[in-house]
Amino acid sequence: MTTKKFNFRLVPLILFVLLLAVLLKGLFSDPRERDSALIGKAFPQFQLPDLYDDSKQHTEKTLLNEAVLINVWGTWCITCKYELPYLAKLANEYDVKIVGLYYDQNYAPEFGQFADIPAIRVEVKDMLARLGNPYQYNILDLDRSLSLNLGVTGAPETFLVDANGIIRMHHMGDVNERIWREKLAPIWNEINQ
Question: How far apart are CA 125 and CA 143, in angstroms?
Fold first, then answer.
């Protein structure tokens, strides 16, 4: 009985092929496409104020009883400016309930940067008046606690949440006609019956 010895000269070749496979996978993947760990789970608990009215508080229960599209955005976000007219079209023509999750990129008290809420409100009203207002209301996530719990890495990002408060879809990047038609509308139509 003969035993064959492993040829250790092949180890560098095997490692090279494995490394090449990993790099090729990364090269041809879309960085905006990633599976969210929250898909199929309940929307995180939160209690945050309305952007326009500090006395009005929103919670995860505010989102119950009908399907909703949660759009993470800010006036500082260039892509959001291009997305707003299309979101307004979805809200007005297709009766999509859209809730804004607004955060201010410049708010960082640990670095001495504080939010000027009245100025933010004026900026938001002006921008929405110019580009269209798709939002039923806007939640102010000043310290980004909800955004962090959702795994948000920037803006815009969009979540589809069903009437039971379950996250059904997470999309990174703008919502435009193609993204809506190919990716979001099929799920929206399923959860909005």
Answer: 21
Give the pLDDT confidence score for residue 3 in this predicted structure.
59
DSSP structural state of residue 164: T
Residue 54: which residues within 8 A CB-CB, separation 6 or more?
A: 117
pLDDT score at 32: 46
Produce one character per residue of 135-160: b if its CB has 16 or more CB atoms within 10 Å, e if not: beebbbbbebebbeebebeebbbbbb
Residues 60, 145: Cα–Cα separation, whole Å: 13
Tens of pLDDT, residue by residue over 6-31, are: 677 777 878 788 887 777 776 665 55
Q: Which CATH class is domain 33-191?
A: alpha beta
Q: Measured at the alpha carbon of residue 66, what is the angle toward residues 62 and 35, in degrees to the nearest 5?
A: 90
